[in-house]
APC family permease
Amino acid sequence: MAGRCGHPRGAISAFGSGIACSVGASRLLFAMGRDGLFSQRLGEISDRGGVPRRALSAILVVSRSRSS
């Protein structure tokens, strides 16, 4: 079943690791924005979900551009 792609658990592990790194990096950007080291907009939390949406979006845009 694994074939050329490797074991499915490896893909799940890589996916989880990518999410954890993205969330950690967005929290770092959030803290830096909140403390005034970066744009104040990165230090805002969304009302709906309580997450640093702008910081997370910035990380995802950068990681997507680097992976292409």
The chain has one domain: 16-67.
